[in-house]
Amino acid sequence: MKKFVIERNLPGAENLSQEELQAMVKNSCDAITQLKKPYHWVQSYICRDKIYCIHIAENEELLREHARLSKFPIHTISEVKTIIDPSF
User: Fold this and answer.
1) What is the pLDDT of residues 40-82, one digit of tens each?
2) N or C: which end of the chain has fewer CB within 10 A?
3) Model's pTM, two decimal places?
4) Domains defined along the chain, listed by start
5) 52 alpha-carbon distance from chain centroid
6) CB neighbour list of residue 26: distance below 8 Å, 6 or more residues apart
């Protein structure tokens, strides 16, 4: 399994209501169930007009299928090659 950062351009993302965010979470979780393959959504970061999502999956094609099922845009996919933090 590989870790990916997905960038989604979504104008007004920072102004989404709790109800809208909850609906997005449900759509994502429902799409993961439909995939019937190993897939893990770690978390997402909402920043102004973008959402950055961390997902773990076998490949980019599975990320694109998740996006299609959940009706979320994907603008870039970047595979994480190395992780560093203050304990490095």
Assistant:
1) 999 999 999 999 999 999 999 999 999 999 999 999 999 999 9
2) C
3) 0.90
4) 2-79 (3.30.70.3090)
5) 7
6) none
